[in-house]
Amino acid sequence: MELQRLSVKLVAESTTVKPLELVPVFHAWIRNQKLKDHLMIDVADYNHVPEGPGTLLVTYEGNYSLAQEDGKIALLYQRKRLLAGTLTERLNTALKAVLTASELLEQEDEFRDRLSFDRNRFWVISNDRLSLPNTEQSFEELSPALSEIATEFFGHDNFILSRQGGEKERLSVLVESSVLN
């Protein structure tokens, strides 16, 4: 499977942080080159757009966005550039990118004790409806690679993969541990 355009999302457990508070933090990340494997370019505020990306950190390789979603904060990494390797390796690269950003955000002084991300679940979203439509067949093709990264991520094989949304939406898979930490 040649899926390249993909996203990985984590949701915050609970927070009082507003997406707009990320603007100065992301600017500081650019100045200090916080993400070593990404060329950070700009920060944009889309919080005025309903169901938009919220606060966006634009990098050459992919975009990071933090937005309100169903009353919670969600951190989304959307890969833009092609990655070499197997599907599992590409998925793992995107997962590590969102995990690195979530850890950095949790360590920021202004967010300490105000922001923590739920690591019992994550979403993988295909941004390529032509190559990977939201069908049961696509889900079955993607499942082995997702199972591989989920086993490594959770450290066990007690997890559930569930296809989200309808056929007119992007393929989104919730990967959720059956063992709560």
What number is the mean pLDDT?
92
Total strands: 9
- Class inferred from helices and paired strands: alpha+beta
What is the C-alpha radius of gyration, as a whole number of Å?
A: 16 Å
Shape estimate: globular
Total of DSSP H or I helical runs spanning 4+ residues: 3
Percentage of residues assigned to helices: 25-40%
- Strand percentage lies at 25-35%
Which fold name is given in CATH as the topology of the domain at 6-128?
TATA-Binding Protein
Q: Describe the biggest sheet? A: 9 strands, antiparallel
Low-confidence stretches: none
The CATH class of the domain at 6-128: Alpha Beta
Intertermini distance: 32 Å
- Helix and strand succession? EHEEEEHEEHEE
Kindly list the characteristics that best describe this protein.
single chain; 181 residues; alpha+beta; TATA-Binding Protein; nine-stranded antiparallel β-sheet; 3 helices; 9 strands; 28% helix; 33% strand
